[in-house]
Target: beta-glucosidase
Amino acid sequence: MEERKLRELLNSLSLDEKIGQLIQLSGEFFSAKDVSLGPQKKLGITKEMVDLCGSVMNVVGAKETHRIQDANLKNKKHPIPLIFMSDIIYGLKTVYPIPLGLGATWDPDLIQKAYRNTAEEAYASGNQVTFAPMIDLARDARWGRVLESTGEDPYLNSRFAESMVKGFQEDLPKYGIASCIKHFAAYGAVESGREYNATDMSENRLRQYYLPSYKAAVDAGAKMVMSSFNTLNGVPVTGNKWILKDILRKEWNFDGIIISDYAAISELVAHGFAQDNKQASKLAMNATVDIDMKSPCYANELKPLVTEGELDEKKIDDAVWRVLKLKNELGLFEDPYRGSSEELEKKSVLTPEKRQLARKVSTEAMVLLKNKNNVLPLNPEDNKKIALIGPYENEHELLGLWAVHGDRKETVTIEDGFKTYLNSDKLLTAKGTDILRDKSMFKGIGLSEEQIEKIVSSDSVEKENNDKAIEVAKEADIIVFAGGEHTIESGEAGSRGNLTLPDNQLHLLNKLFELNKPIILVNISGRPMILTDIEPKLEAIIQAWFPGTEGGNAISDIIFGKANPSGRLSMSFPYAVGQLPVYYSQFSTGRSVRTSTHSSRFMSKYLDIPNDPLYPFGYGLSYSKVCYDNLKLSSKEMNGESDKIVATIDLQNKSNVDTTEIVQLYLQDKFASVVQPIKELKSFKRVSLKANEQKNVSFDITSDMLRFYGTDNKLTVEPGEFNVFVGPNSDTDQYDSFELK
Ligand code: BGC
Model:
């Protein structure tokens, strides 16, 4: 529709119709049955407002979206199409590993392809917007939502933020889907890693570390932004004019839609920020929040606010304009189904090509954390018996909590994968134990007592499972233990205070250790876990995340050496919960354990645990041995901001196995007016090395890599000395220095 016509449409709408466009409701409001007594009554809004509602959340599937759209367009004075938005976070039907696993690929280009495929599935199924990517910087593994993040580093997160947004939106406006980035801002820094908690930090820290990934996503063209649940320095984001209006809209020129997180406008009252829903609505409107997700606020309060002269109707017009503009840009006025159909959906989802890409992504996401005596890869031709033991042995739930629309039946289990490599006489299997036996963990997620009873085996069945696993293990030469977290232990509202494997799995593992056989752990989890106690007793550890639809194949490809692991952690694995938040780019402090001359007690450290995580950011092994040598800088001086320095390093694959090495460049600004971290990732390269191949790798170091936010919170570069580190992970010691003149 021409812009002039769209304006005319806006001008012809009644206040109620306009408000309707600013309301988002979930699928249950549009059920074929009468909803007046159910969701509508519960939320406390009128039937008229439900009828005028402008967008629907979390309904997928061409059939259902068409039914709802048809009903919406019928008998309306102004038949404005609904827009369908959903949490399509790391795949719709073809599910990829959780984003923390995607972060571990260090392969933004590949992830862009994966997200493009997801956009294709979503488009065909009648969705036009996804609430993704979630690009909150995450440094506290207690927070269950680290699952949805690409990790702890602003630079790496920014690269993924761009590639994910581009992947979703590559084919806009005609195909693909619009991206709604979240949770703006700094939701990843909730205190103590507790979900829905407060965030408090200096503006300097916010700008330097927490905002860059959102900014990268906005610059990549994200159409929408979701305001987060948290308070930011005392002011809830959903009513925070400074962060939403001054920074996002004015500084960054974002003119897309801002949507609140789920019920976040009404929660301004619970925060103790607004005295009632009316004030909450006014605060959110003044902060330019356009759409109210699933709260009664805008539906009930905007009209009285306008008629009583407390809110300028122009603000509503501006918000509606942004909503209509997106609908128009996506072509919904011409085709309210936007090309989706049941037929196209069938053709688009879970195609062999999409599965193949998912397998590649999942393989790249695996991180080999330990491989003592090169126990891995296993050779299927060896005359050895392998026992696949543990609760994830033949489990279809490999998708993780936020793959809400994924079909578990379509998942390749680890056993399915193993069977493609091993004959049945060499493969022994036993579940051994449940994933989780603590029944209290299953409360509050809509399960009845009976359902929980079915999930958790009785004590006698558990004992039988344990015994059988031990018998099976006794017959084997090597044990692969497939364990980890239960799906419900991470994701939204999945904060935890203990990050070890569940007790029942530890109990079984300890019995298996007594057999003195090599044990390989395949760890399925939505977060970095504490593996400190069991690590010394394991021969090898593969961090497999929730690996997605093709998970079982990808794990098997790694275990049997079809693929050489190239994944590197994008979030540190803590040594103990007491370290959290733990991340590599810390400050030196006045008494660093590495450099201080104070007596050992009076340094910045713990008395009972080390400062360093068990596995640092950037870490991961492969089946090759790559040596880094001869780091050189093209000059010891950078003369002014337009100059550049080239850092080069020699890499040698001293093995007979081809590999992909993730070469990482870190910088340190040694002295600055605002203290800078001991190391910060500034660039990385994926370098493929054939067996025994040698390569020289180079990085350009430019002055924009040296910028930081000064005491005035503006970007600045200061002359002085910089250290340059190049290596295989953040713990690298190889460095050289130069001076910026
Ligand atoms: C989550 C968001 C999600 C929204 C809609 C909220 O509870 O915080 O990430 O997009 O629900 O499902």
Remarks:
- Residues 57-58, 87, 131, 182, 261-262, 492 surround beta-D-glucopyranose (CB under 6 Å).
- Residues 350-572 form a domain with the Rossmann fold fold (CATH 3.40.50.1700).
- The mean pLDDT is 97.
- The longest strand covers residues 659-669.
